[in-house]
Task: structure prediction
Amino acid sequence: MGLSMNVLALRKVKKILKKVNALKESVAQLSDEELQAKTPYFKQKIKEGVSLDKLLPEAFAVMREADKRVLGLFPFDVQVMGGIVLHQGNVAEMKTGEGKTLTATMPLYLNALTGKGTFLVTTNGYLAERDCEELKPVYQFMGLSCCFGAPEEKNLKPAVKRRIYDHDIVYTTNSALGFDYLIDNLAKDKESKYMRPFNYAIIDEADQVLLDTAQMPLIIAGAPRVQSNQYGTANTFVTTLKKDEDYEFNEEETNVWLTKDGVKRAQAYYGIENIFTEGHHELLQHIVLALRVNHLLKRGDDYVVQDGEVKLLDKNNGRVMEGNKLESGMHQAIEAKEEVKITPAMRAMASVTYQNFFRMFPKIAGMTGTGKVAEEEFINTYYMKVVQIPTNRPVQRVDLPDRIYVTLPEKLLASLEVVKKIHATGQPLLIATANVEISEIYSELLLREKIPHNVLNANNVPKEAEIIKEAGQKDAVTVATLMAGRGTDIKLGPGVKELGGLAVIGTEKLASKRDDLQLRGRSGRQGDPGMSLFFTSLEDEVVIKHGLTWVHKYYDKNKDFDWDQPRLLTRRKFRRALENAQKASDNEGQKGRETSLEFDESLRMQREIIYQQRNELINAQGGYDVEKIITDQIEQFVSTHPKLDAFTLSHYIFSNLTYHYQGDITQVDLTNANAVKEHLLGIAREELALKKGQLANQAEVANFYRTAILRAIDACWIEEVDNLQQLRTVVSSRSLAQRQPMYEYHKEAFRSYGKMKADVYQKIVKNLLLSSVVKTKKGNVIYFV
Result:
């Protein structure tokens, strides 16, 4: 079914390719000036209502010719096909080395003609800047502006960012673009905003950006919270617990919880009767966090400790994710476990998942070498099909069947024997490990064999480009953590083709089939020869987490081994067991992303409402009915206090309406709701008139109102975002009390939103009436709201 669908999609793409190729000769005859004149011609056609689809054949033919003249590269037919798929808003699966960078020039050019801006989004700043610098000349030749959108300088002024985002084509990273979106929606006024409405984005390494990184939401942190002192004690307590007695894992070991005995032990340890009561939810949260970081997160796999700091690792490529932290106290729990200085837990100010972020674009497209196996998820989440583009030259790489061993040492020793034989021929080797720890163990094994090599892992990123560049040379041996998304092709050195090309050795069954395919794809680029071979064992993490019971029993009976005789498991049932474990891992990853998206749904709806209100406020020229807001709030206070006393009324006046009240409360009939309301309204109107009297004209008054309302919305929204981030952690622990986390989350989120709305109106009244209006010597107005 999948193949026939792909064949059908390719047929349609090839029909358009024919039209592009039919224009090849005539476009080649054009002078440079005539070629460049096509850009204003296309723009005029778009203004006249001609669709981009109709313009595609000629626009692609023109850009193809421009690529040839400026870059010296004429896109192959398969690259044009990839470009067509990208323009259609789908994922183009193109193998490593097929030239995805050049492929993107055609759809970017066509979609940038609308004047609405386009993005090329990739996984790291080095790649984005490299590709931008390489391709900028061809865009400029064709009259379009292009720039790099993720500079290293922090705190760029809005005017500078506005200039970046006003370019026709922006090369950037997923994190830079996502964070800029969140920051833009915290802007205090029109001058502080810099982003245009989204139009079109091509996402390079689409499966890594849209799937693998999508489980962790982007969060902007603000002021630190009051620091908890419970991380250390919770960590100490958790280390005293026994598996299967005090805590249990789910089958895949992706979640951990206290048993009844564990709960009793916690209550005895802390000297409390019931840990599930209202006053102890923070303590329970710290215990849950300590359980998770001690039993679900591994040093060298999920994070490293460098210079006394806990730094997260990208699971897909082993890179350190600088500046990233786990939210909801998880990061501080790891720091307690590793006995390093505990950093402040920051309050979340804004948050969005990559799924919901990229779904805001009217059209997105993706490029990857390994998309087809995740097509169902691409369709369900992003409404994009995956179209497999044939390679320009037939693939010559030989992918050998996995070799399966019982234990990890047997597997490593068996792989080392193969590495020694291959290295003796001079054929270059890329040895891929799943984590930093194994990469360093393998490095030790190679040193013992006196085999010179390079190591590329989270501890050695600065030399990355140099190491990759040398990986295809004769005699080169490179040990690296996962290579997905490295973005640099391994080119073969002189004489290497004759030796069989690059040999890829995998030392573990990886968590996703896409990771396997990415790794294999490092060899055999553009029709080069090559080979790949994976060594796996029943101790591989994916098997431990997702293997069937009989596999674990077999391992327990046979885990003793002879160093000199690694046992190769050749029966088909072991091969099937490993394949099924990998499928289960893939399914779990997909389920995790679906859960993340579902959690974000309440926040998404709230975020859209708040951001729309903010933009309307920022762009409005005035007309705020603040008197109605004040009247409504006073009426609400009076109706909810049917039996008022003088103290309560005085407290309300000084806390909400004015600091300067000098009236006589005793003269107000507290039993008469209308009399109380009129008295309060009189105070409010007098205070508001005082503020307006300090402002020169209606424009200043409107600006004062806008500032007061905007700051009220922001203060309450930041509180709401932070509450919902904390809520995610709390509700996951409610599964201990046999409740449904997702139902609990949405119920609490709805209640929290209602409270936030009420708080916003209350804060607007305070901002309007209790604030100070000050004029500087230069005549500028400052609001102390």
